[in-house]
Amino acid sequence: MEIDLLFKIAAIGILVAVLHQVLVRAGREDQAMMTTLAGVVIVLSIVIREISTLFNSVRVLFNL
């Protein structure tokens, strides 16, 4: 696992948190929730891609 992956996830989290706070203070709670949901989906897609790579590596290692 690369350290860059952790930095990407942390950067997305910080960006989403800041955007969420700005939108809530502006009175746009619905857009804040959609921004948070989009951030979660992006991070989940990154994590799922890495898990898929892990499973492929295990499959190749054990010749399955």
Q: Would you mind describing this structure in some detail?
A:
With 64 residues, the protein is mainly α. It has one domain (3-61). The protein is 88% helix and 0% strand. The protein contains two helices and no strands. α1 packs antiparallel against α2 (29-61). It is elongated, with a radius of gyration of 16 Å. 2% of the residues are buried.
The total count of helices amounts to 2
Estimate percent helicity.
over 70%
> Could you tell me the mean pLDDT?
94
Task: Evaluate the radius of gyration.
Answer: 16 Å
Uncertain stretches: none
Tell me how many strands there are.
Answer: 0
What form results from the Cα inertia axes? elongated
As for the number of domains, it is: 1
* Percentage of residues in DSSP E strands: under 5%
Multimeric status of the protein: single chain
Q: Main traits of this protein?
A:
single chain; 64 residues; mainly alpha; 2 helices; 0% strand
List the helices and strands and how they pair.
Elements: H1 3-25, H2 29-61
Helix pairs in contact: 1-2
